[in-house]
Specification:
Structural class: alpha/beta
Strand order of the largest sheet: 3-2-1-4-5-6-11
Bound molecules: NADP nicotinamide-adenine-dinucleotide phosphate, ligand G4F
Low-confidence stretches: none
Strand content: 15-25%
Radius of gyration: 20 Å
Number of strands: 13
Largest sheet: 7 strands, parallel
Oligomer: single chain
Length: about 325
C-alpha cells in the first residue's frame, strides 16, 4: 500500500485529493492547523473521516520539527505540499505570514523530505498567479511564460516554484511543480469570487439577501474544477522524471460574465443586485489568465467538468444548504 502525505489536507484541494488517493488504495496522512473551532475547519474531511486509511494530525508548515517528525515516522512515497495562505487579496493584509508559509514553508517540507525520505516524490502547489501581468502573444500563459507576479501571494509562490526546481537539480529529488489555474467547487472558501457570487445569488433568489458587494468585475480567470485538478496532481507525481506542468481549461471568463451566468441560471439579472465596494479591490490586480495545458494533456489528463457544469454544481449545493435552513 502506497503512503501519501498531504499538507493542507483540510482545504478544498487537500480534501478532494485525499478522497481520490484513498479510492486508489493509498494510505493517506495529512496535517491540519490547530483551530479554535475544529468542527468548522475539518468539515471538508467529513466524507472520509471514518476511513481507516486516513490519518490526520496537527501540524503547521512553520513548525519544522513537527513536519520532520511526521516524515521520519511515516516515510511517505509521495508528498503533496498544498498548504498555503491561498487568498490573494488577503496576502496584502498578512504579507509576512503569506511569505513565511508559501515560501519558507516549501523549504521546510523539502528539507524534511531530503533528511527523512529523499526518494519520495514531491508535488508543489504552484499557481497561475505567478504569471502576474505576463501573457504570451497568442493570449495564453504556459510553462515558458515569464513570471511577473503582482501580489505578495504571487511573489511568495514564485519562490516556492524556484526552490522546487533548485532541489530537483541540486539534490536529484523527484520534485515537481503543478502550475494550476483557478479551480473551484462547492468546497471552495466562500471569500473566493465564484463561491461568494453563487452563495449570494442563491440567498437573493430565496429572499435571504438584497445586494452583493464585489471588487473588480473586469478581471478574467480560467476556472476549472478542483476534482479534475487533483487528478493532475497525482498524475504529475507518477511521472518517471520530475518537471513543471500547467493545469488549466484553456477557457477564460470575466468575473462579470461569471456573475451573469450564475444570476441567469436563477432567472435573475445580476445588474439589479451587484454593487462595487472598494474594499474588495486589490492594490495591484492580475487582469487576465488563460492557460495552455497542452503539456499535461499529452500525459492523458483532461477535464470532466466545463465552466457551466461546475457553476451549476455550486448553485445546486447552495440551494440545498439554504432550502434546508429555511425548512428547519
Ligand atoms: P485552501 O482551501 O485555502 O487550502 C489551503 C490549506 O492550507 C488550508 O486547509 C489551510 O488551513 C492550510 N494552511 C494555511 N496555512 C498553513 C500553514 N502555515 N501550515 C499548514 N497548513 C496551512 O486552498 P486550495 O484552493 O485547496 O489550494 C491548495 C493549494 O493550491 C494552495 O497552496 C494554493 O495556494 C494552491 N493553488 C490553488 C489554486 C486554486 O484556484 N484553488 C490555484 C493554484 C494554486 P487553514 O484552514 O487552517 O487556514
Ligand atoms: O476568486 P479570487 O479571489 O481568486 P484569485 O485571486 O484569482 O486567486 C485564486 O486563484 C489563484 C490561481 O490563479 C490561486 F493561486 C489562489 O490561491 C486563489 O485560489 O479572485 C478572482 C478575481 C480577481 O480578479 C478578483 O479581483 O475576482 C476578482 N474579484 C472581484 N470581486 C473578487 C471580488 N475576488 C474576491 N475574492 N472577492 C470579491 O469580492
Amino acid at each position: 500500500m502506497k503512503k501519501a502525505f498531504i499538507t493542507g489536507i483540510g482545504g478544498q484541494d487537500g480534501s478532494y485529493l485525499a478522497e481520490y488517493l484513498l479510492d486508489l488504495g493509498y494510505e493517506v496522512y495529512g496535517i491540519i492547523r490547530r483551530n479554535s473551532t475544529p468542527e468548522h475547519q475539518q468539515s471538508r474531511l467529513d466524507p472520509i473521516r471514518n476511513n481507516k486509511n486516513l490519518h490526520v494530525s496537527y501540524g503547521d508548515l512553520n513548525d519544522t520539527s513537527g513536519i520532520e517528525r511526521i516524515l521520519r515516522e511515516v516515510k511517505p512515497d509521495e508528498v503533496y505540499n498544498l498548504a498555503a495562505q491561498s487568498h490573494v487579496r488577503i496576502s496584502y493584509e498578512i504579507p509576512q505570514f503569506t511569505v513565511q508559509t508559501n515560501s519558507v514553508g516549501v523549504v521546510n517540507v523539502l528539507e524534511a523530505l531530503r533528511n527523512n525520505c529523499p526518494n519520495a516524490k514531491f508535488y508543489q502547489a504552484s499557481s497561475s498567479e505567478m504569471f502576474g501581468s505576463s501573457v504570451d502573444e497568442d493570449g495564453f500563459q504556459r510553462e515558458s511564460t515569464k513570471m511577473t507576479p503582482v501580489s505578495p501571494y504571487g511573489c511568495a509562490k514564485v519562490f516556492g516554484y524556484n526552490i522546487v526546481r533548485n532541489y530537483r537539480n541540486a539534490y536529484k529529488i523527484h520534485a515537481s511543480n503543478g502550475i494550476l489555474f483557478n479551480h473551484e467547487s462547492p468546497r471552495r472558501g466562500s471569500n473566493f469570487v465564484t463561491n461568494k457570487v453563487v452563495k449570494a445569488a442563491v440567498k437573493i433568489k430565496l429572499g435571504l439577501q438584497d445586494k452583493l458587494e464585489l471588487g473588480n468585475m473586469d478581471a478574467y480567470r480560467d476556472w476549472g474544477h478542483s476534482k479534475d485538478y487533483v487528478k493532475a496532481m497525482h498524475l504529475i507525481n507518477q511521472q518517471p522524471k520530475p518537471d513543471d506542468w500547467v493545469v488549466s481549461t484553456g477557457v477564460t471568463h470575466s468575473v462579470r460574465e461569471m456573475c451573469d451566468y450564475v444570476f441567469s441560471q436563477l432567472d435573475l439579472n445580476y445588474k439589479d443586485y451587484v454593487i462595487q465596494n472598494k474594499k474588495f479591490l486589490r492594490p495591484e490586480e492580475l487582469p487576465y489568465l488563460k492557460g495552455d495545458s497542452t503539456k499535461i494533456r499529452k500525459l492523458g489528463w483532461e477535464c470532466e467538468y466545463t465552466f457551466e457544469s461546475m457553476m451549476d454544481e455550486m448553485i445546486e449545493h447552495w440551494i440545498h444548504i439554504f432550502k434546508n435552513t429555511i425548512n428547519k
